[in-house]
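User: What would this chain look like folded?
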Amino acid sequence: MAKFLYRVGRFAFEKRKLVVVLWLGIMAALVAGAASAPTPPPDTFSIPGTESQQAFDLLAERFPGTKSDGAEARIVFVAPDGQQIGSDANKAAVEKIVSEVAGGTQVKGVLDPFQTGAVSKNGTTAYATVSYNVTSDQLTDASHDALTNAIDAGKGSGVTVEVGGSALQPKPEMGGATEAIGIAIAAIVLMITFGAFAAAGLPLVTALIGIGVGIAAIVTIGMSTTTTTLAMMLGLAVGIDYALFIVSRYRTERAEGYSAEEAAGRAVGTAGSAVVFAGLTVVIALAGLAVVGIPMLTKMGLAAAGTVAVAVTIALTLLPALLGFFQNAVMPKAFRRVLPIAGQASGNGLNATEIPDEKPGMATRWARFVVRRPVAVLLIGLVGMGVLALPMTSLELGMPGDEAQPTSTTQRRAYDALAAGFGPGFNGPLMIAIDVKGVADPKGAVDQAVKTLTTTKGVVEVSPAMFNQAGDAAMLNVIPASGPSSTDTKDLVNQLRGEATALKSATGATVLVTGATAMNIDVSQKMSDALLPYLAVVVGLAILLLMLVFRSIAVPIKAALGFLLSVGAAFGVIVAVFQWGWLAGLIGVHQTGPVMSMMPIFLIGVVFGLAMDYEVFLVTRMREAYAHGESAKDAIVTGFRHSGRVVVAAAAIMIAVFSGFIGGGEAMIKMMGLGLAAAVFFDAFIVRMTLVPAVLALLGDKAWWLPDWLAKILPNVDVEGESLNSKELAEPERELESARA
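Assistant: Here's the prediction, encoded as structure tokens.
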């Protein structure tokens, strides 16, 4: 592989104008395709194989026309203290507001609370349901303004008006301030790392081009905007990381006296090999999301995996081409003064004796410290990570809704008003679908089901059953006594499903529990069930892949165990903040509750990819030094000297980018930002740069041991570039060698 990538790098360098034009042409064609592509259909969230989905499918089949993919808003009205919402003045104010909202061009219909009986028993609260004929991301500013005006109108009349529902969901965006801040921080870190404007700029340019190509391709093939979220985040992350590593290796090769063309080839042949395998681990982690069995999650994973593959390809081709235009500009000023001028004969190249002396950096000093005291460092690190991971034992998964919003939002206030007026379970009703096709007495079977539901502990109210036109199915709503995120509600759903088995035996009717609350419970359960298989598939394949890279058994296993430590500690931080409320006020978390059920899978997939990046980047240089004859401990220090600063820079960029999401208004965004930032910090600085060198120092030569029988089976991919040292030097390099002699 090293020889092949070496030739790719030299070809891209030599034919740099052609390579740049080709990539710009590809991006232009895809952008044009994306611009002309039809608007993709809205994402439909489905969870095949669950009772909730089975019930939704049954209702869609037996009750045609009742299912709506349009947005919905719920306008909540609360009377002034001591008054009834149905009094003449308050009723007139409510009806006026409802009438004004109903006049919107995108409104499908409005259910007046006084006509539908949507008034609380104490008479203080009412709500009107607004249905739209478009999805939430298609609502115009005028439709949103109508809801905002309703709140203002309520203030003027004395009636408190709050609004909840999907109509208030923010539109998905292709980018924003968070990405811009992340890129700015990345530029600063790159400038500090490289000390050269060109060297700092190239990783950003290639990462942005990679995102442009990847996102345009996703939109062109008809995927929705929400599918691109993960792809954009990871495309930026790995795009910068991969280019950062290759540019750093190019600078090292130039400093050792190689011409620009040869240095580009060697950088792609060595660092590029590491990039390929690092990228493969990320692709495995993202494609592995298909194991969960949720179509939307699978699409997001595959889209992000494709974007990562584009980032790898760009790093191997476009980056060496751009290095051809900035051969000396990417070098530090201290080296640039003695580098050959572009176009000058390479025989006048830099001699190793001309390189200014360089003091050991912080990474080198840290590696020497760890190598001298591996046992103490390992024990302290393991105990610390174990303590951080302890809260994970209390992890609870769920799908937080408006109850997790800040109290400053109208959605949260609407939720609280409904809970106060109608009971906590009103915000999470359960929908019951009853299939009586082929049953001898359909009405009797439904009546028996209603009777059973009514007498179940934890059920507050059961609505009258509504039959379909054919009379072979019925549906009704059940209001629980507890809120939608409560464990009591989860227990109730499980109890109702257990009672459905007895009803099936007694009446022949199939009773299914669904609705948003039940679906959220099923999603959480499906995620929990998929967690171990996902880990097994992803970690197992990655261990095999890393065996090819490092030709070792201990190093891949150590890498996987270190990743589990990082994820465990990150989950511990998330539980402590979002479930227990520790320091929650500092980041604006106003309501504790379960962790969003998709969070663990997302966190594992993203962090695993980045963790393996750091592992490959750091340890390949150690492996390379060991393969070139250094002792096991000296190879550790050499690896840190060459790659430690690069890994620190890459991790700092990712931590800064992810930390920017902590300031987001939604709890899920805060959770993702804090979890990812914590996981990257733990993995890069505690695991990869502390525990890894300590373990390798203790293992010594055994770290690189591979059984002879396995060595014969595994292909030698030569990530270290050993074959490049034995290859016949190209003609310009012969001149360089002569000049050195």
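Residues 340-358, 727-741 have pLDDT under 50 and may be disordered. If you want, I can go into more detail on any region.
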